[in-house]
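Why predict the complex rather than its parts? Because the way molecules touch one another can change local conformation, and only a joint prediction can capture that. The input here totals 226 residues.
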Amino acid sequence: SQQGEEDPQALSIQEGENATMNCSYKTSINNLQWYRQNSGRGLVHLILIRSNEREKHSGRLRVTLDTSKKSSSLLITASRAADTASYFCATDTGRRALTFGSGTRLQVQP
Amino acid sequence: ETGVTQTPRHLVMGMTNKKSLKCEQHLGHNAMYWYKQSAKKPLELMFVYNFKEQTENNSVPSRFSPECPNSSHLFLHLHTLQPEDSALYLCASSRLAGGRGGETQYFGPGTRLLVL
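Output of the joint prediction:
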């Protein structure tokens, strides 16, 4: 099974609402990263959180990491229609290339 | 633009054709990757190259043949593909690859491949 698994698989919200996506993983990590993918395009790196960090912010993005629960969450505040995309977490164990989860498809209704 | 380009962007080929996908990165990175993304499936890592040496091959069928002549260029040679190989093929690069800690990957826009 995937090292990182996102939850929910799909999420539909109204513009202005907050969107929360979760990622669970199995083995110890050096860092966890979140990526975004617009339909049919490449992934774009959003934010990286290291294993010794608990929370990180970047603009409207807030990422938390709980290494005891092996989980992370991505919060997008005040969502916009342009945030519609798939969001992936990726874990860096330091032993091999990044492992990506299966993604959360976010739909923001205008 | 992420600094990673891929050509062609779209490709239609028959099962007996031979074609190649090209990836180029302008970021001065040392690691390059090929991924396959099929509809409703997780992103599948195919190959990893670190300083031009292949460091990962995730049980990819031999009809996919990668080539990395230098740290800036990566090719994926395709021959006798099957319809189930139709997918979005993504190239990525990073400063270093797995085992050396903390890489962020930069992706190209992908090649949409259709095998008839």
